[in-house]
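INFO worker-7 received task bundle
INFO bundle size: 2
INFO processing item 0
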Amino acid sequence: MKEFFSRHGIWILLVAVIVTVTMAVLSTFGAGAAAPVQNAVGIVSAPFRAAISATANWIDGRIRFAGDYDALKEENAALKERIAKLEEENRQAKADSAENERLRQLLNLRPQQRSFSYETAMVVDHTRSNWTRTLTLNKGSSMGIEPKDCVINAEGYLVGVVSEVGANWSTVLTTVDTDFEIGATVFRSGEAAIAAGDFNLMPEGMLRLNFVSADSVLLNGDLITTSGLGGYYPAGLVVGSVEEVVTDDSGAMDYALLSPAADFDELTEVFVITDFTIVS
């Protein structure tokens, strides 16, 4: 044993010193302190852990942003649809209000004809040639329109008479068309006559007042209205006014030229009288 310690004692002492120093160094870290190797690994991996955490947070933020963006897009689309619907309702309300106002004006013009039933229609075509002058409307039999219904404008002036009807369209002979004819009355005197289109006058936008009594006196500007005789047409609708009185060779009155009250070229909307009460 002595020989062993004499030979190896220095090495044993060196190992003991190293162990003692190591234990002293480790004791300085205190309880809960990381081991040197673990600490070194932690130092090296810390930036990577921070980068991974930041990346995860960024991805999570993007996912939440995408979800919020899609929700905002859907909400924005719904709001746009709602706004468009409200704008359409507002336009329709304005159109209905304007139509109601025109109807009120018509009723005020003819208070004795309050039983009139009107169907509003839009003029979709104007036909003008050497032998005809008609209008095409966007309403027909499905809306109660029938042949011989009178058609007036917003002022209550006679535009013409329905001549042909389809399910969703109708044709109107204007008062200057060669096939137009209606019982008429001289408003000032109450004399009966016939207002009719004329082939020669149609290019000038005029019509004739025929079968006027030989002893009647017509004045330029005399108002001519519908007579309502026979019950086919309502009475009191303004047809036009006397423009000129034409005499025959003997000097007696032959017929009168009438200027229509309605301006056909400007018509975009008309009112079809689908029903009325005859006023005696």
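INFO item 0 finished
INFO processing item 1
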Amino acid sequence: MQELPTTEFHVVRSQDDVPAQANDAETQVFVIEDSLGYLMNYVAKLFARAHTTCLEQHDVTLGQWAVLLFLWAEDGLTQTELSRHVAIEDATMVRTIDRMERDGLVQRVRNARDRRQLNIFLTDKGRSLRDVLVPCALTVNATALQGFTDEEQHQLAGFLRRIIASLE
């Protein structure tokens, strides 16, 4: 039986931490701070932390913010449509809508054409938060992109859309 080649992986935080012996053919180095997945996750957490500060002032969670965004764009989506748009599991969406309904942000309405479906509609309170919360998001985005040219911002958005399409 033929032996399979073995590859040794070294995991290091930065390029400065790559060991000298990592140059041989059997060794690969995984640099955490160069990992696209790590960087995107870290950026997402920083965005969430910055945005949560504003959202909390209005008793809105980050999960509710995502739902509000899509309902501001198209009121009356179904729970399933919202789950797909927000990219969370149906059960998580049900719990989020439960809390939002309890907090007076949305209401569930049985679909007249398909009684099995529930459409989610904003209440006056949910609608009124748009003009308060969207500026918060714009401020976080502007802070994150300070120092980027318009062209760089456009390219970054395009790159991110391509990554999303590849992973979907």
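INFO item 1 finished
INFO post-check item 1: The chain has two domains: 1-34, 36-167.
INFO post-check item 1: Helices lie at 36-56, 62-73, 79-86, 90-102, 124-128, 130-144, 150-167.
INFO worker-7 idle
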